Each structure stands twice: as structure tokens, then as C-alpha cells.
């Protein structure tokens, strides 16, 4: 199955970063962490959801475990830089060049400050979106931290 151009770009970036993994394309999009986990045969907590928020007039990427929701008030208190609000679809597209449901942890037009949920460390292998709603790739928690330059934090309830 051929990959969308955006997913091919993500796969190339991964290889350049020393992560030689194949991007997986689903026949149908997986619109929830639960659906993606079922399709991959992994626990829902091993899904590394890429969520774009807005804080201090800038995008904030939060890579969170599919097993819980981001507690924006608690995360804002930890970071101490003001309120955190969910980005609009337009803000997501502008910040990442990707659409909601397919945001990859890399491949953005400019670097985005990234927070990585420490709950993801509980899993040997994680799944992250590869730039489209129907593509993903597998990686470890340490690889996720490395490719994003992310800050490990408690983000969920």
C-alpha cells in the first residue's frame, strides 16, 4: 500500500534521525486511540496522542497516553506560563502542517515546544501518528523524547 506524501516525509525524517521503522497505513482511518490500539493489537495507553494546545501565544504539543485526558489546568500550573487552551483546527494546521487526528510528533514547519506524558514510559513500544489520520509508526518512549526534544511531565488524570 502506498503512503501519502506527508507520511513518506515523516518516514524519511525518522530514518534521518536513526529510527528505521516502516510507517503503517490503515485501510480506514482510526479516529480514536481505542480504535488505533485495536488495529495494532496494543494497549490503548501505548497510543501516543499528539495534541496541539495554545499557551502564551504559541503552540504547545502534548504527547499524551491514550489511557487518559490532558489535565490542562494542572499542566498549566506545572509550567507556570499561563492558561493552556485547545488549539483550533486552523491553529493546528498552521503550527504542524497536519490535520487533527494525524498530527505526528515531528515534521512541523518550525519547532514546537513539546511535553511528553510520563505515563507513556510504561510501554515498551508506542504508536504515534505519521502525519495523516490513517498512518502511524512505532517507537519507544526514549525515541519519542529524543525526536521531539520533549519535556517529560505528568499530564493526565
TrEMBL record:
Gene3D superfamilies with a match to the protein in the record: YbaK/aminoacyl-tRNA synthetase-associated domain (3.90.960.10)
Domain YbaK/aminoacyl-tRNA synthetase-associated: 28-146
InterPro entries in UniProt: YbaK/aa-tRNA-synt-asso_dom_sf, YbaK/aa-tRNA-synth-assoc-dom
Alphabetical list of Pfam families matching this protein: tRNA_edit
Top-level division of the source organism's lineage: Bacteria
PANTHER family in alphabetical order: CYTOPLASMIC PROTEIN (PTHR30411:SF1)
Protein name: YbaK/EbsC family protein
Organism, as annotated: Agrococcus citreus
Amino acid at each position: 500500500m502506498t503512503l501519502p506524501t506527508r507520511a513518506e516525509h515523516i518516514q524519511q525524517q525518522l530514518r534521518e534521525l536513526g529510527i528505521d521503522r516502516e510507517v503503517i497505513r490503515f485501510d480506514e482511518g482510526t479516529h480514536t486511540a481505542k480504535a488505533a490500539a485495536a488495529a495494532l493489537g496494543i494497549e490503548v495507553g501505548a497510543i501516543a496522542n499528539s495534541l496541539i494546545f495554545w499557551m502564551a501565544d504559541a503552540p504547545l504539543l502534548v504527547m499524551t497516553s491514550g489511557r487518559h485526558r490532558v489535565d490542562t489546568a494542572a499542566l498549566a500550573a506545572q509550567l507556570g506560563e499561563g492558561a493552556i487552551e485547545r488549539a483550533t483546527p486552523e491553529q493546528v494546521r498552521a503550527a504542524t502542517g497536519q490535520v487533527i487526528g494525524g498530527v505526528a510528533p515531528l515534521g512541523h514547519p518550525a519547532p514546537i515546544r513539546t511535553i511528553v506524558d510520563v505515563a507513556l514510559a510504561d510501554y515498551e513500544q508506542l504508536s504515534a501518528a505519521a502525519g495523516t489520520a490513517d498512518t502511524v509508526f512505532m517507537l519507544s518512549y526514549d525515541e519519542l523524547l529524543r525526536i521531539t526534544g520533549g519535556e517529560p511531565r505528568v499530564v493526565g488524570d
